[in-house]
Design a protein that fits this description.
This protein is an alpha/beta fold. It is built from 19 helices and eleven strands. It has helices spanning about 5-15, 45-70, 75-80, 85-95, 105-115, 140-150, 165-170, 170-185, 195-225, 235-250, 255-260, 270-285, 305-320, 365-375, 395-405, 425-435, 445-450, 455-470, 485-495; strands spanning about 1-5, 25, 130-135, 155-160, 330-335, 360-365, 385-390, 410-415, 440-445, 500-505, 515-520. Strands 7-6-5-8-9-11-10 form a seven-stranded mixed sheet, sandwiched between helices. A four-stranded parallel sheet has the order 1-2-3-4, with helices on both faces. Helix 16 (about 425-435) links the parallel strand 8 (about 410-415) and strand 9 (about 440-445). Mean pLDDT is about 85; it is low at about 185-195 and about 530-533.
Amino acid sequence: MGLSGGGPSSMTFAAAYPERTRALIALEAVSNSDLPDIPAPAFLAGDFTAWLSVSMLKRAVGTEGLLEMFSPDPENQRLVLESEEKTAAFEGLMWSLWPPSQRGDGLANDEKQFDALDLPLAEIRVPTLAIHGTADAAVPVEHASFLADRVPQAQLHIIEGADHLMPVSHQEEVVRVITEFIDGLDDQADEGSEESPEDVFGVLCLVFSPLLLVGSMVFALKVRFVNMPRGISGTAYEPYMARLALHLIGSRRDDVSERIAPHLPALSPLIMGLLMKPMALASRWSGFRGSFFAYPGPRPSTLITFISHRTHFFDTAIAAATAEDSPIRQFVFLGAGWDTRGYGPLSEGVDLAGAGVKVFEVDEPPTQQVKVEALRAAGVDCNNVTFAPTDFNQQSWLESLKEHGFDPDQPTFILWEGVTMYLDDAAVSKTLAEVGSRIAFDFFSRELVLGRKPYAVMGTYMRYALKSFYGESMHFGISTAAPARQQVLDFFEGRGLEVENFESLGREAGRSTPIGGLVLAAVPDQSVAAPPA
């Protein structure tokens, strides 16, 4: 896809490498040298000037005033301002110009190249779609007509009244037209073709990249400026969105995850349409799932694929704990986040709603309140789940459970997913000491958490990224230095628990140091059959 000034590069590539190009989409794209003489915004003069100008303008005239400078038509302004997501997308695009010091050379090269464009348009032989707005002052609509007249069998779609903010203001129509165009492509490879599903998936991701970029920016802004000020967990989205992706592409059933998505504070139908669904469509249309979208996922897993591995490990453990011969009568999701395992049938035979067991969810009050509201707004029956809001800094989670009808004498399964790394050693040890029957949880390597060899660089980066984006820090880890398995067994034995199953996140062989592990442990004499490794 070529967007605006990216048009010439995408058109040249499509002409030169047809065997590597599935289709070409020109979105308000430059196709010739006939461009208006629009001076660069003054605030691009320097990094500080840019920051100061945008900040002062935002304070002086507000978002509406800034939007008027970029999109003078009142109707287009209304289309952007009609939703918080579109407004946030506009602000994100505006801030993407900063810092200008990293854009100077590229802008100068664009200006030089655009002065004498002679693109090989007639040599493009791949399916082509040009989308443009009639009110585009930056790249006139004639550029789309120029392209369509010269590319054999090109499709042209004009949006009346749309300007250069078309991908934001007219997002719904742009997505619909692109989707219909891709749906019309012949996805059946010719006999003997060397085109692989992975190649097609890569092309489709490139096609969707502008949507994915905008969706990612809006999602990040909502996590940072909507979730965090309200005390809602940001890290809860990572495992949830990975499982949502598995559901959308058909790898793992999880209907409730899709139903609640539009009602969670950092998601919405717009973000789903920009971020999650294009990736799912690319996987489905291409037939490619790869290791990231695979379920149960590859073994040994990596930092990229471990969530799929972890999801399957916990699903299997829960299925074993709900079997007819299992003594487990209570399930506790400790730090539940957006986990949806308690609300209906999933993969691996997991169906806590129909298992005849009591289900409890424990989490911080702001996060749990939002989840309950999302479940109710989505019409999800959650009568089988008891919610126990707990301020972990002020109250024992076990005491909170007791206040909400939990019986500590009943055999209980505790799922503790994606939490331990953010606690200190004392908090983890205290929780493990309160396990009544069995617990399944994950952990990161102590070497990774502390940024020690062989994860000095990766660990330092992760700590910085988590702190700067989510405001959370990693503290706890179990050493996985060789022999990793023995280190884990010793850790739990010292806390009075028996390890029923352990799977490393990464290779255990030789002197390898896995990035972490998955553990199913039980109080002695209260274990049940461990799930298969």
